[in-house]
């Protein structure tokens, strides 16, 4: 970071929290917040109000499993739609598989649900919970 140049920072969301890390400075500065706005406020506090910031927001990406969860489908159905050319184009293919921007898959899910309303008497397709918890067995006192 040269004289008069803005400080560069990266922000990203993970696990329901936002994180930011300042780059190109001699000190390690990383902050977190419960929202993008609160994270930015923490970043401003840490760097001072007189520092110009250039912030790169890292988008959230998803693979087939996460796309299936968003759609409320199983992975095989997502693959079927991909093979038919009926699913958004992935932004890249890694050794672990294809990846999409999460917002692209969420937008597609919204459009798909609007175009395929549930039939009468049929429950709407909703995203499945990540880790459904099994009820705990409680033994009655003797």
What does this structure look like?
The chain is an alpha+beta fold and 142 residues long. The chain has 2 domains: 50 residues; 55 residues, Multidrug-efflux Transporter Regulator, Chain: A, Domain 2 (Orthogonal Bundle). Strands 3-2-1-4 form a 4-stranded mixed beta sheet, with helices on one face. The longest helix has 14 residues. It starts with 6 loop residues before the first strand and ends in a 27-residue tail after the last helix. About 5% of the residues have low confidence.
Largest sheet report: 4 strands, mixed
Total domain modules: 2
Q: What is the CATH class designation of the largest domain?
A: Mainly Alpha
Count the beta strands. 7
Instruction: Sketch the topology as an H/E string, one letter per element.
Output: EEEHEEHHEEH
Question: Nearest-angstrom radius of gyration?
Answer: 21 Å
Structural class label = alpha+beta
**Mass-distribution shape:** elongated
Strand content: 15-25%
With strands numbered from the N-terminus, the spatial order across the biggest sheet is 3-2-1-4
- Report the uncertain regions: 130-136
Give helix % range: 25-40%
CATH topology group of the largest domain: Multidrug-efflux Transporter Regulator, Chain: A, Domain 2
What is the CA-CA span between the terminal residues?
Answer: 70 Å
User: From the coordinates shown, what is the CATH architecture of the largest domain?
Assistant: Orthogonal Bundle
Averaging pLDDT over every residue, what do you get? 86
Number of helices: 4
């Amino acid at each position: 970071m040269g004289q008069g140049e803005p400080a560069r920072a990266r922000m990203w969301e993970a696990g329901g929290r936002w994180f930011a890390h300042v780059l190109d400075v001699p000190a390690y500065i990383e902050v977190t917040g419960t929202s993008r706005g609160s994270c930015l406020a923490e970043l401003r506090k840490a760097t001072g109000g007189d520092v110009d910031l250039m912030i790169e927001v890292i988008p959230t990406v998803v693979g087939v499993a996460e796309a299936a969860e968003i759609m409320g489908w199983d992975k095989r159905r997502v693959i079927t739609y991909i093979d038919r050319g009926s699913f958004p184009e992935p932004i890249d293919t890694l050794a672990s598989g294809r990846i999409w921007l999460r917002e692209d898959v969420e937008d597609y899910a919204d459009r798909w649900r609007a175009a395929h309303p549930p039939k009468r008497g049929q429950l709407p397709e909703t995203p499945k919970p990540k880790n459904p918890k099994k009820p705990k067995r409680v033994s009655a006192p003797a």
